[in-house]
Amino acid sequence: QQQVKQSPQSLIVQKGGISIINCAYENTAFDYFPWYQQFPGKGPALLIAIRPDVSEKKEGRFTISFNKSAKQFSLHIMDSQPGDSATYFCAASYGNTGGFKTIFGAGTRLFVKA
Amino acid sequence: GAVVSQHPSRVICKSGTSVKIECRSLDFQATTMFWYRQFPKQSLMLMATSNEGSKATYEQGVEKDKFLINHASLTLSTLTVTSAHPEDSSFYICSAKRQMNTEAFFGQGTRLTVV
Question: How far is B22 from chain A (nearest CA, A)?
Answer without folding.
Answer: 14
